[in-house]
Amino acid sequence: MTWALALAWAAPARADFRLCNNTSGRVGVAIGYKDSEGWATEGWWNLASRSCETLLRGTLVARYYYIYAVDYDRGGEWSGQAFMCTRDKEFTIRGIEDCLARGYDRTGFFEVDTTEQRSWTVQLTESTEQAPQQPLPQYTPPPGALPAQPKQTK
User: Domain residue spans in the chain?
Assistant: First the structure.
């Protein structure tokens, strides 16, 4: 099974960081970011198939955000090489150093470049699925959005 990712920014009236699960399965999501207090990771948001969730509310304070997501139903993940701290249960963790020594998991997140937009939406998709015939309300990928190919795990 191959996974894909499309990035898009949200409608200009909203100023949030959102994630949409455009797959046929349930997805768990964690986010990492740097704010005025330093690095932080938060999770888990559990998104039903074909649904969206606001991960951070308000105007974005950073250009780069980091996402890790796992497909609960079929296995597989959307991951990358930006390592940050997570845990199995709901969490907010400050700092990205010494994850294992502090009792956390060390997890690879993929980077999202928001190009300093006020709001942004990440679309998680399966490359084997066709795009929905009707886009999710107010959130459509821009022309030329680049897909990523996260690894499949089992």
Answer: 3-126
**In contact, 31 and 136? CB cutoff 8 Å:** no
End-to-end CA distance of the chain: 11
- Given CA atoms 122, 31, 96, 58 in this order, what sign does their dihedral have? positive
C-alpha distance from residue 107 to each of 44, 69, 110 (Å) = 13, 10, 10
Q: At 62, which amino acid appears? A: A
Instruction: State if pTM tops 0.85.
Output: no
E strand spans, the chain: 3-8, 16-21, 27-35, 38-47, 51-57, 64-71, 77-78, 82-86, 91-94, 105-113, 120-126
What digits encode the pLDDT tens for the residues 20-73? 999 999 999 999 999 999 999 999 999 999 999 999 999 888 999 999 999 999
Query: Quick one: fold of 3-126?
Result: Immunoglobulin-like (2.60.40)
> Which strands, in side-by-side order, build the sheet including 16-21?
3-8, 120-126, 16-21, 51-57
Angstrom CA distances, 91 to 30, 44, 78, stand at 9, 7, 19
